[in-house]
Amino acid sequence: MIWVYGICARDARPPLDVRGRGEAPLETVAHGGLLAVVSQAADGDERPSTGALHAHARVVDALMDETTVLPVRFGTGFAGALAVRSALAVRRTPLLHALHHVDGCVEMAVRASVPDRPRLAAVDQLPFPPDRRLKAALHEPLGGLAVAVRVWPALVPGEVLRAAYLVPRAELPAFQEAAAELELEFPRVLLTCTGPWPPYSFVE
Length: 204
Hints:
Blueprint: E1 2-9, E2 27-31, E3 34-40, H1 50-66, E4 70-71, E5 77-78, H2 81-90, H3 92-102, E6 105-113, H4 131-143, E7 148-151, E8 159-168, H5 172-185, E9 190-197
Antiparallel strand pairs: 1-3, 1-4, 1-5, 2-3, 6-8, 6-9, 7-8
């Protein structure tokens, strides 16, 4: 079995000195302008483990540092190089389009919540904007620096924003500064901004 970590353009130079799952050396499989970064599965490496997950993340992060990469979900495996080439051939057009879309960008994750929000009957009595206005106030300065955004419904009570932003590397300092300014502007909001990450949220 072959594990797949990421897809790059064929002319990319991935860092093959990084080790994959089970300390296996990285290899590449090319087809139609695409390059899959893979490693051979070691005996007994078929089951997921914390070590395997960390190895996968390490490879994808190293790829992100060197080139544009479409990260592949942990645990994606194929029977061999021929099967990888077949998958690249079937999805060649959407993969090339996705590479163009994320080229030069990284993912930033933002979560914002209002812990211990007081239960007031009238919206205009709140010492901060109601959810929809607060969400817009947090999102708009960040979204303006991104080329694409994914926003998800709240998972927990008090959460007002859970989003991923595809940010050009050149805009990364401005994005981080904007997030820091929002923390100062809305001191009652617990805002976390993490990244840069590989663009997992923008790869189908």
